[in-house]
User: What shape does this take?
Amino acid sequence: MKKIDLGKLVRPSVCGLRAYSAKEIPCKVKLDANESPYAYDSRKIAKLAAAIRTNRYPDPESRELRKAAGKRFGVSSENILQGNGSDELIYYLIAAFSGPVLFPVPTFSMYGIISRALGETDIAVPLDGEFDIDLERTLRVVKKEKPKLIFLSSPNNPTGNCFSSERILKIIETSKGIIVVDEAYQPFSSEKGFLPLLKDYPNLVIMRTLSKIGLAALRVGFLIADPQIIREVNKVRLPFNVNSFSQAIATAALKDRGLDSAIRNIVSERNRLFLAMAKIDGIKPYPSEANFVLFEVKDPVATYNALLKKGVLVRNLADSMKGCLRVTVGTPEENTVFLKALKECAI
Amino acid sequence: MKKIDLGKLVRPSVCGLRAYSAKEIPCKVKLDANESPYAYDSRKIAKLAAAIRTNRYPDPESRELRKAAGKRFGVSSENILQGNGSDELIYYLIAAFSGPVLFPVPTFSMYGIISRALGETDIAVPLDGEFDIDLERTLRVVKKEKPKLIFLSSPNNPTGNCFSSERILKIIETSKGIIVVDEAYQPFSSEKGFLPLLKDYPNLVIMRTLSKIGLAALRVGFLIADPQIIREVNKVRLPFNVNSFSQAIATAALKDRGLDSAIRNIVSERNRLFLAMAKIDGIKPYPSEANFVLFEVKDPVATYNALLKKGVLVRNLADSMKGCLRVTVGTPEENTVFLKALKECAI
Assistant: This one.
């Protein structure tokens, strides 16, 4: 049998990486992954899916999907690039522009993971005490390291707040690189986001996703930017990256008013959750503009385990936010179960 | 308004690339893209799709899908990595191992396209006069350039033949890099392929896809290799790369005997097509082990246009095989329409 030396073959930057691992943890109430509690109508899905000729390749340009997305975001199809989830669009951005890649921390982990998978330098700048961008430090690092890409998740995961618009604008105006404002959680926010500013800033890229608003199963995300940026990133996109089922169902969902009423329910439940959590002794929830609530507890591991014992799965942020747990907003019934369990744990 | 210099921002290797373009050409009989003429049962699809909770993320490890694929290919789940089509797996292989990337030409265009998108050197070695690997020249280049990856599509697209097993083996034995035998068209071949040799060669990787056997719409491909290779490539895989619909439908289809009877129909129709084409004056078809037939004509552009005028779309290979067209095997009815049209054009 032939022997090979994989250590010599694998790209050195990849050798030390660990694969993403997401164990399935059995639970009754799943509030760990910032998913929407509301699935898309299964009868509509069945009808759309049955109409797909599985033997034909998808539309490589996702024309109908981009048209529907353009309509929703108030831009032209030319401003939109479709992705197999935002994850894939992060991959493409880094493939097209290279690093260094800068982002504040804590934030969505994939900016760093994908930078490293592609062998690019990632630079993590800690947030300030208010979970906002540390502007002075960020601008200093931007000047010194000249990042090609800066990822700003606003509202930010896992902190839940929007970054100050003025600070984001200052970075967009100062940096010679591309600023990606990841608006995955924007639909739950009271702020208006950065879409209206696209025309003024050719180095501004906005990311949106359907994963938080009821369609995580589909893997559909969008880049929204100046057509000249879209054209460059499109050069490294795989032709058939969004499959026919995702294209058809996402197109229908984007036109569906049900999506918006689900979002309103989640926002109102998030506000109820926050207020109720704030009343529990030993629990300190942080205000949220997203579909989850970050909260501090005295003993996060004990609380996490106690909740799980009662069938409620939340996220333990031991790696990124010591002392904190994150709970996704569920249905009213799920939130009530969570609140009851949390009260019992806190006693 | 802010100005940016995109030329300075985009990775130099990406700057000169052109995006993949696949125009939709209206036709009655679509025989241009090596798709199967047989779609998967729409009632089964509707049932599977309706059961999916769209709000939940897909299984990041595609466990059921990999189990079903393992069963079909006679290997363990540990030997399998799932991709959003083989295209994505090519991306991941190059991200994990880097270049140089070697392949014979003409062949599947994505090996070169993705190498260039990732900024890696690609080396194209011309096939010999029999459309087989030019072994002497290939081994010379392997010795000199030490490619990290060698892609061998067998049966090869667009030539339709299998490469000589002895030559492939010689390359596997000689090279210190990874040899990827892309068996996208293997289900249509009379040869047994390279799966039985996996155990002997830790640097052998096999690619399989569902795109040619009725499920192009789903985007599902597989890497099959030694678990230590799978583990390395898995480090650069996006966690949710195969969506829930593709996982569920592909899992069901892999277990379905209908898939195999469709393949048998295609093989028997391919043989009929070949014999009938060989009888037409001015048409020289090449023997095929795939689901398409390559053929030489005196004036490929004129023949292509004449066929299209009759509603039949084939592939003009002007870029890769001057003087040749490629026709995908359709249903018996579609093939009869094609043969009739071809006879009329050839007169």
Observations:
- The mean pLDDT of chain B is 96.
- Residues 43 and 325 of chain B are 36 Å apart (CA to CA).
- Chain B has two domains: 23-39+258-346, 42-254.
- Chain B touches chain A through 92 residues (CB under 8 Å).
